[in-house]
User: Which sequence fits this backbone?
Protein backbone atom coordinates (compact mmCIF):
# COMPACT_ATOMS: atom_id res chain seq x y z
CA UNK A 1 0.00 0.00 0.00
CA UNK A 2 1.47 3.36 -1.05
CA UNK A 3 -0.56 6.52 -0.46
CA UNK A 4 1.43 9.74 -0.32
CA UNK A 5 0.36 13.01 1.21
CA UNK A 6 1.76 16.09 -0.54
CA UNK A 7 1.31 19.32 1.40
CA UNK A 8 2.66 22.84 1.68
CA UNK A 9 4.91 23.58 4.66
CA UNK A 10 4.60 27.38 4.51
CA UNK A 11 1.81 29.87 3.67
CA UNK A 12 0.80 28.20 0.40
CA UNK A 13 2.07 28.62 -3.17
CA UNK A 14 5.12 26.44 -2.52
CA UNK A 15 4.78 24.77 -5.93
CA UNK A 16 2.48 21.89 -4.94
CA UNK A 17 0.82 21.79 -8.37
CA UNK A 18 4.11 21.23 -10.15
CA UNK A 19 5.24 18.47 -7.78
CA UNK A 20 1.84 16.70 -7.87
CA UNK A 21 2.10 16.77 -11.68
CA UNK A 22 5.56 15.19 -11.46
CA UNK A 23 4.46 12.48 -8.98
CA UNK A 24 1.12 11.62 -10.60
CA UNK A 25 2.55 8.86 -12.88
CA UNK A 26 3.34 6.82 -9.74
CA UNK A 27 -0.30 6.89 -8.55
CA UNK A 28 -3.77 5.79 -9.71
CA UNK A 29 -5.84 8.43 -7.94
CA UNK A 30 -5.24 12.06 -6.93
CA UNK A 31 -7.51 13.36 -4.15
CA UNK A 32 -8.03 16.82 -2.65
CA UNK A 33 -9.13 16.75 1.01
CA UNK A 34 -9.70 20.41 1.99
CA UNK A 35 -10.09 23.98 0.77
CA UNK A 36 -11.87 25.05 -2.35
CA UNK A 37 -11.26 27.32 -5.33
CA UNK A 38 -9.19 29.63 -3.13
CA UNK A 39 -6.25 27.41 -4.21
CA UNK A 40 -4.24 28.09 -7.35
CA UNK A 41 -1.99 25.22 -8.41
CA UNK A 42 0.15 25.94 -11.45
CA UNK A 43 1.11 23.20 -13.89
CA UNK A 44 2.65 23.45 -17.35
CA UNK A 45 1.17 21.16 -19.98
CA UNK A 46 2.97 21.07 -23.32
CA UNK A 47 4.48 24.47 -22.50
CA UNK A 48 1.09 25.98 -21.62
CA UNK A 49 0.46 27.38 -18.17
CA UNK A 50 -2.61 25.92 -16.44
CA UNK A 51 -3.85 26.97 -13.01
CA UNK A 52 -6.08 24.48 -11.19
CA UNK A 53 -8.24 25.81 -8.39
CA UNK A 54 -10.75 23.17 -7.29
CA UNK A 55 -9.96 20.15 -9.43
CA UNK A 56 -6.90 18.09 -8.40
CA UNK A 57 -3.77 18.74 -10.46
CA UNK A 58 -3.66 15.05 -11.44
CA UNK A 59 -6.48 15.72 -13.93
CA UNK A 60 -3.91 16.59 -16.61
CA UNK A 61 -2.87 12.92 -16.65
CA UNK A 62 -5.63 11.20 -18.67
CA UNK A 63 -5.32 7.84 -16.89
CA UNK A 64 -5.73 9.21 -13.35
CA UNK A 65 -8.95 9.40 -11.37
CA UNK A 66 -9.39 12.62 -9.42
CA UNK A 67 -11.37 13.02 -6.24
CA UNK A 68 -12.88 15.99 -4.41
CA UNK A 69 -13.41 14.96 -0.79
CA UNK A 70 -16.03 15.84 1.81
CA UNK A 71 -13.53 18.22 3.44
CA UNK A 72 -13.82 20.67 0.56
CA UNK A 73 -16.17 23.58 0.01
CA UNK A 74 -17.40 23.30 -3.57
CA UNK A 75 -18.63 26.09 -5.79
CA UNK A 76 -20.52 24.25 -8.55
CA UNK A 77 -20.07 27.28 -10.83
CA UNK A 78 -16.29 27.24 -10.29
CA UNK A 79 -16.28 23.47 -10.86
CA UNK A 80 -17.94 23.71 -14.28
CA UNK A 81 -15.92 26.77 -15.26
CA UNK A 82 -12.73 24.86 -14.58
CA UNK A 83 -13.97 21.88 -16.60
CA UNK A 84 -14.70 24.24 -19.52
CA UNK A 85 -11.21 25.72 -19.29
CA UNK A 86 -9.70 22.24 -19.29
CA UNK A 87 -11.79 21.28 -22.30
CA UNK A 88 -10.55 24.35 -24.19
CA UNK A 89 -7.02 23.08 -23.53
CA UNK A 90 -7.88 19.67 -24.92
CA UNK A 91 -8.37 17.96 -21.55
CA UNK A 92 -11.71 16.18 -21.78
CA UNK A 93 -12.95 15.01 -18.37
CA UNK A 94 -15.63 12.30 -18.28
CA UNK A 95 -17.60 12.00 -14.99
CA UNK A 96 -16.07 8.59 -14.08
CA UNK A 97 -12.65 10.24 -13.96
CA UNK A 98 -13.67 12.98 -11.57
CA UNK A 99 -15.61 12.25 -8.38
CA UNK A 100 -17.18 14.71 -5.96
CA UNK A 101 -18.12 13.68 -2.44
CA UNK A 102 -21.82 13.84 -1.66
CA UNK A 103 -20.84 15.23 1.78
CA UNK A 104 -18.75 18.15 0.51
CA UNK A 105 -20.15 21.55 1.44
CA UNK A 106 -21.60 23.80 -1.25
CA UNK A 107 -20.59 27.45 -1.53
CA UNK A 108 -23.85 29.41 -1.85
CA UNK A 109 -24.34 32.93 -3.29
CA UNK A 110 -24.64 34.39 0.21
CA UNK A 111 -21.20 33.17 1.30
CA UNK A 112 -19.04 35.66 -0.68
CA UNK A 113 -21.46 38.44 0.35
CA UNK A 114 -21.09 37.57 4.03
CA UNK A 115 -17.33 37.41 3.57
CA UNK A 116 -17.29 40.93 2.17
CA UNK A 117 -19.21 42.22 5.20
CA UNK A 118 -16.91 40.36 7.61
CA UNK A 119 -13.73 41.59 5.92
CA UNK A 120 -14.98 45.20 5.89
CA UNK A 121 -15.97 44.95 9.55
CA UNK A 122 -12.45 43.89 10.49
CA UNK A 123 -11.07 47.15 9.04
CA UNK A 124 -7.29 47.29 9.57
CA UNK A 125 -7.37 43.69 10.84
CA UNK A 126 -8.85 42.25 7.65
CA UNK A 127 -7.55 38.79 6.77
CA UNK A 128 -7.14 39.53 3.08
CA UNK A 129 -9.06 36.46 1.96
CA UNK A 130 -9.54 35.33 -1.62
CA UNK A 131 -13.22 36.45 -1.41
CA UNK A 132 -14.44 33.10 -2.74
CA UNK A 133 -16.86 32.48 0.14
CA UNK A 134 -14.58 29.84 1.67
CA UNK A 135 -14.67 31.05 5.30
CA UNK A 136 -18.45 31.61 5.56
CA UNK A 137 -19.11 28.23 3.93
CA UNK A 138 -16.95 26.47 6.54
CA UNK A 139 -18.66 28.60 9.21
CA UNK A 140 -22.02 27.24 8.08
CA UNK A 141 -20.61 23.71 8.15
CA UNK A 142 -19.45 24.11 11.76
CA UNK A 143 -22.69 25.87 12.72
CA UNK A 144 -24.63 23.03 11.04
CA UNK A 145 -26.43 25.22 8.50
CA UNK A 146 -24.33 23.91 5.61
CA UNK A 147 -25.79 22.65 2.35
CA UNK A 148 -24.00 19.55 1.14
CA UNK A 149 -23.56 18.33 -2.44
CA UNK A 150 -26.04 15.48 -1.82
CA UNK A 151 -28.69 18.00 -0.73
CA UNK A 152 -28.67 19.52 -4.22
CA UNK A 153 -30.36 16.35 -5.48
CA UNK A 154 -33.29 16.61 -3.03
CA UNK A 155 -35.44 19.67 -3.91
CA UNK A 156 -37.52 19.60 -0.71
CA UNK A 157 -34.50 19.40 1.57
CA UNK A 158 -32.64 22.00 -0.47
CA UNK A 159 -35.57 24.43 -0.24
CA UNK A 160 -35.86 23.95 3.50
CA UNK A 161 -32.16 24.54 4.02
CA UNK A 162 -32.00 27.66 1.84
CA UNK A 163 -35.03 29.07 3.66
CA UNK A 164 -33.49 28.38 7.06
CA UNK A 165 -30.19 29.96 6.04
CA UNK A 166 -31.73 33.05 4.50
CA UNK A 167 -33.97 33.62 7.52
CA UNK A 168 -30.82 34.53 9.47
CA UNK A 169 -28.53 35.79 6.74
CA UNK A 170 -31.05 38.25 5.31
CA UNK A 171 -31.20 39.90 8.73
CA UNK A 172 -27.45 40.39 8.54
CA UNK A 173 -27.65 41.73 4.98
CA UNK A 174 -30.33 44.21 5.97
CA UNK A 175 -28.40 45.33 9.05
CA UNK A 176 -25.43 46.13 6.81
CA UNK A 177 -27.54 47.93 4.19
CA UNK A 178 -27.58 45.10 1.62
CA UNK A 179 -30.59 43.77 -0.27
CA UNK A 180 -32.07 40.53 1.14
CA UNK A 181 -31.82 37.44 -1.09
CA UNK A 182 -34.82 35.50 -2.41
CA UNK A 183 -35.18 31.75 -1.94
CA UNK A 184 -36.69 30.86 -5.33
CA UNK A 185 -33.96 31.98 -7.77
CA UNK A 186 -31.27 30.36 -5.61
CA UNK A 187 -33.29 27.16 -5.35
CA UNK A 188 -33.80 27.04 -9.11
CA UNK A 189 -30.15 27.69 -9.91
CA UNK A 190 -28.77 25.17 -7.41
CA UNK A 191 -31.28 22.48 -8.28
CA UNK A 192 -30.14 22.76 -11.92
CA UNK A 193 -26.49 22.73 -10.85
CA UNK A 194 -27.19 19.64 -8.73
CA UNK A 195 -28.60 17.81 -11.75
CA UNK A 196 -25.57 18.77 -13.82
CA UNK A 197 -23.28 17.67 -11.00
CA UNK A 198 -25.07 14.37 -10.34
CA UNK A 199 -22.92 12.14 -12.61
CA UNK A 200 -19.86 13.17 -10.58
CA UNK A 201 -21.37 12.68 -7.12
CA UNK A 202 -20.03 9.67 -5.21
CA UNK A 203 -19.50 8.28 -1.73
CA UNK A 204 -15.80 9.12 -1.80
CA UNK A 205 -14.93 7.34 1.45
CA UNK A 206 -16.36 4.04 0.16
CA UNK A 207 -14.73 4.51 -3.25
CA UNK A 208 -11.26 5.27 -1.87
CA UNK A 209 -11.37 2.49 0.73
CA UNK A 210 -12.27 -0.05 -1.96
CA UNK A 211 -9.57 1.21 -4.29
CA UNK A 212 -6.91 1.12 -1.59
CA UNK A 213 -8.00 -2.39 -0.59
CA UNK A 214 -7.63 -3.55 -4.19
CA UNK A 215 -4.05 -2.24 -4.35
CA UNK A 216 -4.53 1.16 -5.98
CA UNK A 217 -2.37 4.07 -4.83
CA UNK A 218 -3.63 7.49 -3.86
CA UNK A 219 -1.82 10.81 -3.86
CA UNK A 220 -3.41 13.26 -1.42
CA UNK A 221 -3.02 16.80 -2.78
CA UNK A 222 -3.01 19.41 -0.03
CA UNK A 223 -4.04 22.97 -0.76
CA UNK A 224 -2.82 26.10 1.04
CA UNK A 225 -0.12 25.28 3.60
CA UNK A 226 0.57 24.28 7.20
CA UNK A 227 0.81 27.90 8.38
CA UNK A 228 -2.65 28.63 6.93
CA UNK A 229 -4.21 25.67 8.78
CA UNK A 230 -7.23 26.66 10.88
CA UNK A 231 -5.82 25.07 14.06
CA UNK A 232 -2.07 25.10 13.58
CA UNK A 233 -1.51 28.15 11.39
CA UNK A 234 -1.06 31.80 12.30
CA UNK A 235 -4.62 32.14 13.60
CA UNK A 236 -6.67 34.22 12.91
CA UNK A 237 -4.73 34.96 9.70
CA UNK A 238 -5.42 31.53 8.25
CA UNK A 239 -7.84 29.81 5.92
CA UNK A 240 -10.82 27.93 7.38
CA UNK A 241 -9.83 24.34 6.61
CA UNK A 242 -7.45 21.67 7.93
CA UNK A 243 -4.53 21.87 5.53
CA UNK A 244 -2.36 19.68 7.76
CA UNK A 245 -2.10 15.89 7.78
CA UNK A 246 -5.16 15.32 9.97
CA UNK A 247 -7.30 16.89 7.26
CA UNK A 248 -6.76 13.84 5.04
CA UNK A 249 -8.70 11.55 7.39
CA UNK A 250 -11.55 13.94 8.12
CA UNK A 251 -11.65 15.30 4.57
CA UNK A 252 -11.82 11.96 2.76
CA UNK A 253 -13.20 9.52 5.31
CA UNK A 254 -10.01 7.49 5.55
CA UNK A 255 -7.99 6.11 8.44
CA UNK A 256 -4.60 7.56 9.53
CA UNK A 257 -3.14 4.17 8.56
CA UNK A 258 -4.05 4.91 4.93
CA UNK A 259 -1.34 7.60 4.75
CA UNK A 260 1.95 5.83 4.13
CA UNK A 261 4.23 8.83 3.57
CA UNK A 262 4.33 12.61 3.72
CA UNK A 263 6.15 14.86 1.26
CA UNK A 264 6.47 18.49 2.34
CA UNK A 265 6.67 21.08 -0.42
CA UNK A 266 8.94 23.88 0.69
CA UNK A 267 9.93 27.04 -1.13
CA UNK A 268 13.58 28.11 -0.78
CA UNK A 269 12.34 31.45 0.54
CA UNK A 270 9.01 32.52 2.05
CA UNK A 271 5.92 34.13 0.55
CA UNK A 272 2.56 35.02 1.95
CA UNK A 273 -0.59 36.48 0.34
CA UNK A 274 -2.96 38.47 2.50
CA UNK A 275 -2.44 39.82 6.02
CA UNK A 276 -0.83 38.31 9.10
CA UNK A 277 2.52 38.01 10.82
CA UNK A 278 5.55 37.25 8.67
CA UNK A 279 8.79 37.43 10.71
CA UNK A 280 11.25 37.17 7.79
CA UNK A 281 9.40 39.53 5.44
CA UNK A 282 11.64 41.69 3.25
CA UNK A 283 10.63 45.20 2.36
CA UNK A 284 13.86 46.05 0.55
CA UNK A 285 15.48 45.49 -2.85
CA UNK A 286 16.21 41.80 -2.09
CA UNK A 287 12.47 41.19 -1.51
CA UNK A 288 11.58 43.03 -4.71
CA UNK A 289 14.14 40.99 -6.65
CA UNK A 290 12.75 37.70 -5.30
CA UNK A 291 9.21 38.81 -6.18
CA UNK A 292 10.29 39.72 -9.72
CA UNK A 293 12.45 36.67 -10.44
CA UNK A 294 10.00 34.33 -8.70
CA UNK A 295 7.00 35.88 -10.45
CA UNK A 296 5.32 36.08 -7.07
CA UNK A 297 1.80 37.06 -7.97
CA UNK A 298 -1.19 35.07 -6.69
CA UNK A 299 -2.32 32.30 -9.07
CA UNK A 300 -5.93 32.86 -7.92
CA UNK A 301 -6.35 36.56 -7.20
CA UNK A 302 -3.33 38.03 -9.01
CA UNK A 303 -2.34 39.87 -5.81
CA UNK A 304 1.38 40.54 -5.20
CA UNK A 305 2.76 37.99 -2.75
CA UNK A 306 4.77 39.32 0.18
CA UNK A 307 8.31 37.87 0.02
CA UNK A 308 10.93 37.13 2.65
CA UNK A 309 13.89 34.96 3.64
CA UNK A 310 13.56 31.26 4.36
CA UNK A 311 12.14 30.63 7.83
CA UNK A 312 13.45 27.35 9.24
CA UNK A 313 11.59 27.85 12.54
CA UNK A 314 8.29 27.81 10.66
CA UNK A 315 9.19 24.94 8.31
CA UNK A 316 10.61 22.78 11.12
CA UNK A 317 7.31 23.26 12.92
CA UNK A 318 5.38 22.25 9.77
CA UNK A 319 7.58 19.15 9.40
CA UNK A 320 6.90 18.16 13.01
CA UNK A 321 3.14 18.56 13.06
CA UNK A 322 2.74 16.76 9.73
CA UNK A 323 5.35 14.05 10.17
CA UNK A 324 7.08 15.09 6.95
CA UNK A 325 9.28 12.22 5.70
CA UNK A 326 10.90 14.09 2.86
CA UNK A 327 11.05 17.63 1.52
CA UNK A 328 10.75 18.81 -2.08
CA UNK A 329 12.56 22.16 -2.24
CA UNK A 330 11.22 24.52 -4.89
CA UNK A 331 12.44 27.73 -6.51
CA UNK A 332 16.06 27.91 -5.23
CA UNK A 333 16.87 29.09 -8.80
CA UNK A 334 15.09 32.35 -7.91
CA UNK A 335 17.81 33.13 -5.34
CA UNK A 336 20.65 32.92 -7.87
CA UNK A 337 20.54 36.60 -8.80
CA UNK A 338 21.12 37.71 -5.22
CA UNK A 339 24.58 38.30 -3.80
CA UNK A 340 23.80 36.86 -0.38
CA UNK A 341 21.12 34.45 0.88
CA UNK A 342 19.78 34.42 4.41
CA UNK A 343 17.84 31.81 6.34
CA UNK A 344 16.31 32.26 9.78
CA UNK A 345 17.11 29.50 12.31
CA UNK A 346 15.62 31.03 15.50
CA UNK A 347 13.63 34.00 16.73
CA UNK A 348 14.64 36.43 19.46
CA UNK A 349 11.75 37.52 21.68
CA UNK A 350 12.26 39.81 24.66
CA UNK A 351 15.93 38.87 24.69
CA UNK A 352 15.38 35.11 24.60
CA UNK A 353 16.09 32.78 21.67
CA UNK A 354 13.11 30.67 20.63
CA UNK A 355 13.27 27.78 18.22
CA UNK A 356 9.69 26.55 18.47
CA UNK A 357 7.13 28.37 16.34
CA UNK A 358 4.94 30.43 18.69
CA UNK A 359 1.18 30.16 18.26
CA UNK A 360 0.32 33.74 19.28
CA UNK A 361 0.23 36.23 16.40
CA UNK A 362 1.24 39.12 18.64
CA UNK A 363 4.45 37.27 19.54
CA UNK A 364 5.16 36.44 15.90
CA UNK A 365 4.68 40.10 15.04
CA UNK A 366 7.37 41.11 17.54
CA UNK A 367 10.05 38.44 17.14
CA UNK A 368 13.43 39.32 15.62
CA UNK A 369 14.71 36.62 13.25
CA UNK A 370 18.25 35.33 13.79
CA UNK A 371 19.84 34.70 10.41
CA UNK A 372 22.57 32.54 9.00
CA UNK A 373 24.04 33.96 5.82
CA UNK A 374 25.15 32.00 2.73
CA UNK A 375 27.04 33.07 -0.38
CA UNK A 376 25.23 32.42 -3.65
CA UNK A 377 26.58 29.29 -5.39
CA UNK A 378 29.00 29.70 -8.28
CA UNK A 379 26.92 28.42 -11.22
CA UNK A 380 23.25 27.96 -12.00
CA UNK A 381 21.42 24.82 -10.87
CA UNK A 382 18.68 25.34 -13.49
CA UNK A 383 18.15 22.06 -15.45
CA UNK A 384 20.94 20.25 -13.53
CA UNK A 385 20.26 16.51 -13.46
CA UNK A 386 23.05 15.04 -11.37
CA UNK A 387 22.73 15.63 -7.61
CA UNK A 388 26.40 14.97 -6.87
CA UNK A 389 27.57 17.58 -9.37
CA UNK A 390 25.45 20.39 -7.99
CA UNK A 391 27.64 23.39 -7.03
CA UNK A 392 29.40 22.93 -3.67
CA UNK A 393 27.88 26.14 -2.29
CA UNK A 394 24.39 24.92 -3.05
CA UNK A 395 25.08 21.51 -1.46
CA UNK A 396 26.34 23.28 1.68
CA UNK A 397 23.08 25.22 1.79
CA UNK A 398 21.08 21.97 1.38
CA UNK A 399 23.04 20.26 4.16
CA UNK A 400 22.37 23.15 6.49
CA UNK A 401 18.66 23.06 5.65
CA UNK A 402 18.48 19.30 6.28
CA UNK A 403 20.25 19.62 9.64
CA UNK A 404 18.17 22.57 10.76
CA UNK A 405 14.84 21.11 9.61
CA UNK A 406 15.78 17.61 10.83
CA UNK A 407 14.32 16.32 7.56
CA UNK A 408 15.87 14.99 4.36
CA UNK A 409 15.50 16.86 1.08
CA UNK A 410 14.66 14.43 -1.72
CA UNK A 411 13.85 16.71 -4.63
CA UNK A 412 14.91 20.08 -5.98
CA UNK A 413 12.78 21.99 -8.43
CA UNK A 414 14.94 24.32 -10.49
CA UNK A 415 12.47 26.08 -12.78
CA UNK A 416 8.83 26.16 -13.88
CA UNK A 417 8.93 23.34 -16.45
CA UNK A 418 8.31 19.64 -15.89
CA UNK A 419 11.93 18.86 -16.76
CA UNK A 420 13.27 21.27 -14.14
CA UNK A 421 13.45 18.63 -11.42
CA UNK A 422 16.28 16.70 -9.86
CA UNK A 423 15.60 14.06 -7.24
CA UNK A 424 17.21 11.34 -5.17
CA UNK A 425 15.63 8.11 -6.34
CA UNK A 426 16.72 6.21 -3.22
CA UNK A 427 14.84 8.68 -1.00
CA UNK A 428 11.68 8.26 -3.08
CA UNK A 429 12.07 4.49 -2.95
CA UNK A 430 11.79 4.79 0.83
CA UNK A 431 8.37 6.49 0.62
CA UNK A 432 7.05 5.05 -2.66
CA UNK A 433 8.61 1.60 -2.72
CA UNK A 434 8.52 0.06 -6.20
CA UNK A 435 6.28 2.83 -7.43
CA UNK A 436 9.33 5.13 -7.44
CA UNK A 437 10.24 3.34 -10.70
CA UNK A 438 7.25 5.04 -12.36
CA UNK A 439 8.71 8.52 -11.87
CA UNK A 440 10.23 10.19 -14.94
P1 LIG B 1 0.98 25.94 -5.41
O1 LIG B 1 -0.21 26.72 -5.00
O2 LIG B 1 1.74 25.41 -4.26
O3 LIG B 1 0.67 24.88 -6.43
O4 LIG B 1 1.97 26.99 -6.12
P2 LIG B 1 1.55 28.11 -7.20
O5 LIG B 1 1.28 27.45 -8.48
O6 LIG B 1 0.51 29.01 -6.64
O7 LIG B 1 2.88 28.97 -7.23
C1 LIG B 1 4.11 28.42 -7.58
C2 LIG B 1 4.68 29.22 -8.77
O8 LIG B 1 6.06 28.96 -8.89
C3 LIG B 1 4.06 28.83 -10.10
O9 LIG B 1 4.02 29.95 -10.93
C4 LIG B 1 5.04 27.79 -10.65
O10 LIG B 1 5.03 27.73 -12.07
C5 LIG B 1 6.36 28.33 -10.15
N1 LIG B 1 7.38 27.32 -9.84
C6 LIG B 1 7.21 26.09 -9.28
N2 LIG B 1 8.41 25.51 -9.06
C7 LIG B 1 9.34 26.40 -9.48
C8 LIG B 1 10.78 26.39 -9.49
O11 LIG B 1 11.43 25.46 -9.03
N3 LIG B 1 11.40 27.51 -9.97
C9 LIG B 1 10.72 28.58 -10.44
N4 LIG B 1 11.42 29.62 -10.90
N5 LIG B 1 9.36 28.61 -10.46
C10 LIG B 1 8.70 27.54 -9.97
P1 LIG C 1 -2.61 27.37 -2.66
O1 LIG C 1 -3.30 26.03 -2.58
C1 LIG C 1 -1.68 31.13 -0.67
C2 LIG C 1 -4.79 32.79 1.95
C3 LIG C 1 -5.48 34.08 1.54
C4 LIG C 1 -5.75 34.68 2.92
C5 LIG C 1 -6.09 33.45 3.77
C6 LIG C 1 -7.58 33.20 3.93
O2 LIG C 1 -2.53 27.92 -4.03
O3 LIG C 1 -1.29 27.32 -1.97
P2 LIG C 1 -9.45 32.27 2.29
O4 LIG C 1 -9.97 32.83 1.00
O5 LIG C 1 -8.88 30.90 2.16
O6 LIG C 1 -10.41 32.38 3.42
O7 LIG C 1 -8.22 33.25 2.67
O8 LIG C 1 -5.49 32.34 3.10
N1 LIG C 1 -4.84 31.69 0.94
C7 LIG C 1 -3.78 31.30 0.22
N2 LIG C 1 -2.53 31.78 0.15
N3 LIG C 1 -2.02 30.03 -1.38
C8 LIG C 1 -3.26 29.51 -1.30
O9 LIG C 1 -3.60 28.35 -1.87
C9 LIG C 1 -4.23 30.18 -0.50
N4 LIG C 1 -5.54 29.96 -0.22
C10 LIG C 1 -5.89 30.88 0.68
O10 LIG C 1 -4.65 34.89 0.76
O11 LIG C 1 -4.57 35.24 3.43
MG1 LIG D 1 -1.07 28.61 -5.30
Assistant:
Amino acid sequence: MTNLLVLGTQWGDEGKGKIVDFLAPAFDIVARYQGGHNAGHTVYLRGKKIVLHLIPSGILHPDKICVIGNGLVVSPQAFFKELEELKALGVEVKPGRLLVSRSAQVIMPYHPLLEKIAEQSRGQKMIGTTCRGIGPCYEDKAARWGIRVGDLLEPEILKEKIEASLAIKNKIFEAFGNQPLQVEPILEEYQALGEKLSPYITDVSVFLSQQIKSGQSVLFEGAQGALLDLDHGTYPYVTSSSCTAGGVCTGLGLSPRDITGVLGITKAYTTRVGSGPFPTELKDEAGALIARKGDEFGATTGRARRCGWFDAVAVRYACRINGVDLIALTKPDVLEELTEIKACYAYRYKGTLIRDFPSEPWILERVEPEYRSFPVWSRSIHRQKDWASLPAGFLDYLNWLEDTLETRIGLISTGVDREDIIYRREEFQKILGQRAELLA
Remarks:
- Residues 8, 11-13, 38-41, 127-130, 132, 134-135, 223-225, 228, 239-240, 273-274, 299 surround 6-O-phosphoryl inosine monophosphate (ligand 2) (CB under 6 Å).
- Residues 105-199 form a domain with the Adenylosuccinate Synthetase, subunit A; domain 2 fold (CATH 1.10.300.10).
- The two ends are 21 Å apart (CA to CA).
